[in-house]
From TrEMBL:
Record domain DUF4357: where: 246-289
Protein name per Swiss-Prot or TrEMBL: DUF4357 domain-containing protein
Organism, as annotated: Liquorilactobacillus cacaonum DSM 21116
Pfam families: DUF4357
Length: 306
């Protein structure tokens, strides 16, 4: 069971849309969230002259997918570190897509080239695996050689990073669906059961999709089948979702990966290609809809793991 954490957020400009400093109790790390438009105002932040790792965030204009570039910055001969690197990215026309940067360094300036190379490599791998963002790094960063003791320290730093960057509003390291861990005792699996959506086409063929509710919305699971024909009653949102996800299902309209939607209805409409009340149509193994489950206040599902 994860323990509670105390996070300190300092709004440097007095607004949540401006520069933010973030730290955790009993952690030497420190993070800064800096809008691209506020880089000049960040010159007075001494920690940004140090070594560290940074994330450049944006959203694709065409597909609305989240984008991230992960990099590292060492201290230059002129005394400039992370901020100088961010300013170089701002001037680079090939990296003009980003709108915000999140930087990680330490309060005691202990990172050297080996540490930031290790962190950059690990961050890139985790972000790629989670499939939340399109990772713009052209090549996988070098891992570097670290001792067992140093690796343990850096892995702990990464664990804290996940908490902080999530608190800043980026789910870059979080999988859409949390996989259950192995064990011999009953464990909680995301608090919610797997739900099924079944419809019949004009040829009486059943189309079955599986999904589940999460704290962020509703996830349609990999392997679910979509209805090929889109109804005239389909909303503009459904049409847009089908278009954005066209590379995420095969020629048989089978989903190739999990997809997160804002609600059960958005997910059901995406599957059926029509306007559907997902809270009525998504049902558990006993045939109870989401509305029925909530009305009956059904207990949280536990799964016995082998």
């Amino acid at each position: 069971m994860a323990k509670g954490k105390t996070i300190q957020l300092y709004l440097i400009d007095g607004t949540p849309k401006g520069r933010i400093k973030c730290s955790l109790a009993n952690w030497t790390g420190v993070a800064y969230k800096i809008p691209r438009t506020a880089l000049e105002q960040a010159k007075n932040i001494e920690a940004l002259k140090q070594t560290g790792v940074y994330f450049l965030f944006s959203t694709s204009d065409e597909t609305q997918e989240n984008i991230v570039y992960i990099g590292q910055a060492g201290v230059r001969k002129n005394g400039e570190g992370i901020l100088h690197r961010l300013q170089e990215h701002k001037r680079n026309p090939e990296k003009d897509y980003w709108t915000e940067a999140v930087v990680f360094t330490t309060s005691n300036n202990i990172f050297g080239p080996t540490e930031i190379s290790y962190l950059e490599n690990k961050y890139t791998k985790i972000a790629t695996k989670s499939k939340r963002y399109i990772v713009k790094n052209a090549n996988e960063p070098t891992l570097g050689n670290v001792t067992e003791e140093k690796e343990s320290e850096l892995e702990e730093f990464i664990d804290y990073t996940k908490i902080v960057i999530g608190a800043l509003g980026y789910s870059i390291f979080e999988p859409i669906i949390n996989e259950p861990t192995t064990g011999t005792t009953a464990q909680l699996l995301d608090n919610e059961p797997i739900l099924t959506l079944t419809i019949k086409t004009h040829t009486a063929q059943k189309i079955i999709a599986k999904g589940k509710q999460t704290s962020e919305g509703f996830v349609v699971l990999k392997g679910s089948k979509l209805k090929k024909k889109i109804s005239k009653s389909a909303s503009s949102g459904t049409l847009k979702n089908r278009e954005l996800a066209k590379n995420h299902y095969d020629e048989n309209f089978i989903l190739l990966e999990d997809i997160l939607f804002t609600s059960p209805s958005a997910a059901a409409s995406f599957i059926t290609g029509s306007s559907v009340n997902g809270r009525k149509e998504w049902k558990d193994a006993n045939g109870k809809s989401i509305n029925q489950r909530e009305a009956e206040n059904l207990p949280t599902q536990f799964i016995q793991l082998e």
